[in-house]
Design brief:
With about 200 residues, the chain is an all-alpha fold. Helix content is about 80%, strand content about 0%. α5 packs antiparallel against α6.
Length: about 200
């Protein structure tokens, strides 16, 4: 009776080696997806938001009443939200970056909570009549969102967030008449400066 010739050891280990290699490649891809910076933040979006904020700052400077201040800056906030969202999606599509992928999802989920907190606190502050607190509150919470979201983006983004937070902390010690100046410096100046930097270094 003939015995079946045993297979060489290398042939027996080949499927195992292939399986391990595929697992290693999957792990490497997932690690790169988690560690890669979210580059869809739009520099042009920052510049456009900054330009509209400067216009709002000038208008509110010549209309210093609290009611005018609220109307002007709440309108600017809505406009900036749509500009930022549109340019973010536009750049992501052009660069073939999925917003629901690991980097984009982390960026958005880290950015959103401070923004939502700012919306809720704004209603409370307006209801209580503490309108002079709003410029500092908006700058602080927006900056906090940019810092946390920027941890998953390119380096200028969290640095810009720190600048917003610094202006916000300073604005809390000044009356409402200075609010348009601080908001103009933050939402206007910082957006334009860092938007230009991002557009030059990272495109769009």
């Amino acid at each position: 009776m003939l015995r079946k010739r045993p297979q060489p050891r290398s042939e027996m280990e080949l499927p195992t080696l292939q399986s391990r290699a595929m697992q290693d490649l999957t792990f490497i891809r997932q690690t790169m997806a988690r560690s890669s910076a979210f580059t869809a933040v739009s520099g042009m979006g920052g510049i456009l938001m900054g330009a509209t904020a400067l216009v709002a700052a000038v208008i509110s400077f010549f209309n210093p009443s609290p009611s005018s201040f609220l109307v002007i800056w709440l309108t600017e906030a809505v406009l900036a939200f749509f500009i930022g969202s549109w340019t973010l999606v536009r750049k992501a599509r052009a660069a073939r970056i999925q917003l629901v992928a690991e980097g984009g999802r982390r960026f958005i989920l880290s950015l959103a909570p401070p923004m939502l907190a700012g919306v809720v606190l704004s209603f409370v502050v307006i209801r209580e009549g503490w309108i002079s607190v709003l410029p500092g509150l908006w700058l602080l919470l927006y900056g906090a969102g940019v810092v946390t979201g920027g941890a998953f983006s390119v380096r200028p983004v969290p640095v810009m967030g720190i600048g917003f937070m610094g202006l916000g902390a300073l604005a809390l010690f000044f009356p409402l008449s200075w609010g348009c100046i601080f908001l103009g410096l933050g939402f206007g100046g910082l957006h334009i400066v860092f938007g230009t930097l991002i557009a030059r270094r990272y495109g769009g």
